[in-house]
Amino acid sequence: MIAPMPQPVDNSSNALETSPRMAPALHRQPVISTIGARAFLLEAPGHFDLAPQRRIWALAQALRQWDDLSEIVPGMTNLLAIFKATPADPDAVTVRLRDAWGRAESIDIKGKTVEIGVIYGGEHAIDLAALCDRSGLTDSEVVRIHHEGTYTVFALGSAPGFGYLHGLDPRIHMPRKTVPSLKMTKGCVTIGGMQTGVATLTGPNGWNSIGFADLQMFDPAAAVPAIMAPGDTVRFLPERIEL
Amino acid sequence: MIEIIDTGPLNTIQDLGRPGYRDIGVTASGAMDPLALKIANLLVGNGEGAAAIEVQTFPFRLRFDETTVFAVTGGAGATLDGRVLPPWWMQQGNAGQVLELSLSPASARAYIAFAGGVDVPIVMGSRSTSLRGAFGGMDGRFLQRHDRLPLGEATALSVDGLGVVPPATALAELFPIALDGTLLIRALPAGEHHLFGADAERFWSQSWKISSQSDRTGYRLSGEPVRPTEPAEMRSYGIVPGVVQVPPGGEPIVQMSDANTAGGYPKIAGVLEADLWRLGQARIGSRLRFVRSSHADARALDQAIAAYIDDIRNTSQMVARALKTMTGR
């Protein structure tokens, strides 16, 4: 049997049904599951990338109009919707979420730019050597690649004010450690897989530290407790490089 | 004011927590047994969500500076100046009297509520202690000897001596325990349940032991490991207490009140909220089995618990009014 010729992508309303293989990732269906009886997790189809994340932000915005939700937690190309009460008809909730996803247009949040001064290397860069080993790059190359990047805050989570940053150069991707550091210092500039971020609490941490930022990322007493917000742009400015 | 005279580590001030900030990474915290907290508050005439002391390391002793109406619920033996108090009981403590809580063999945590509530500052909508974030409660830390806690303005209720039938007894038919003492905890399958193949069935059928590596953040369960048939590549997702995640070792972790706000391990199940308070009272070393449940079960349980709480609210107010009339107070 001869493989069908590639066809131009059909953007008409029935494109989904007629040519699923041709549809871009974003036109596929999200996966919806539950955590307990009140929380529903919607996972966007497609790659871990900015396009599905923008659509997650749009979905979060749309869901803020639902008055039966108590909390909306955008994650990494996914979103957890927590209902005030256990829904009577979970299948109907799934349909509503799927519809909301279907209608969610990609939005480009006009975030602020957060500039973070970093001391690269030095006593807190406990995993820089391992990253050099893995990447085959010198420490100054790793540092340069990291601070030349422009990052987008995808979501906040894990620890108060911690932003998951997207946009890390694949040359310095580094898997999380199998044995976490037991007491990584708050302020460590870290790489976890294809993400980067700045530790906001001192404690166990499986990400890889390459530097240190002396910046208060979270203040529970402030009107806006977290410095970062989804859609913000983050740049790292090398204050000092200690190699 | 009350003064802490004796306490082990990890006893904290808790209310019903600060939900609503998970999207900026802030754990909800709050009582591990919210049902016991609510009842303690209702008994002393507070709103159900006032701040109270959660005691999980014993013995715990405090002294009243002035006449104070208090209630003790959850699991603990309680004495006032050495006199044994009935379980799930409220009464008045006088200036200088000492309330002592001792470990109960069957439960893990007790709650002490005071008329007016513990009046520490509200941080992000709650007085709950966030140990991890080091804020809320008493300067974000656990209670220490010589801490003096301010109390809020007490409302009208001034009965001296009133108890309730604990939920585990009053609602016994809703909260079954296996004949061998194994706790039966209802849960729904979660997102990666299907990836566990035959192990998924064993997750439900085998009994799990609550390991010593268990605290307010989460319970680590020991038993024969369950593993996905292929490694799952997860992206960080928002979580709620009750999520049962399976790290690479195959022994599940149930996230509890101080749960992280996001996770990356495959999740096999999610415990019904109506059963979370029972987990909050489960002791290290005890055993549990997960029972596959449904949204319909969850709703029925939620409604039964709400009715039980309403009943206590109404009855305690009614008794207070009646006693007031009788004593002419």
Automatic annotation (TrEMBL), chain A:
Keywords: ATP-binding, Hydrolase, Nucleotide-binding
Disordered as annotated region, ranges: 1-20
UniProt cross-references to InterPro entries, sorted A to Z: CT_C_D (IPR003833), Cyclophilin-like_dom_sf (IPR029000), PxpB (IPR010016)
Span of domain Carboxyltransferase: 30-228
Stored SUPFAM superfamilies: Cyclophilin-like, PH0987 N-terminal domain-like
Source organism, top-level taxon: Bacteria
Pfam families assigned: CT_C_D
Coiled coil residues, start to end: none
GO molecular function: ATP binding; hydrolase activity
NCBIfam families: 5-oxoprolinase subunit PxpB
Official protein name in the record: Allophanate hydrolase
TrEMBL record, chain B:
Signal peptide start and end residues: none
Keyword Nucleotide-binding: yes
GO molecular function: ATP binding; hydrolase activity
SUPFAM superfamilies referenced in this protein's UniProt entry, alphabetically: Cyclophilin-like (SSF50891)
Keyword Nucleotide-binding attached: yes
The protein's name in its UniProt record: Allophanate hydrolase
Pfam families: CT_A_B
Keyword tags: ATP-binding, Hydrolase, Nucleotide-binding
Residue ranges annotated for the Carboxyltransferase domain, each copy included: 23-308
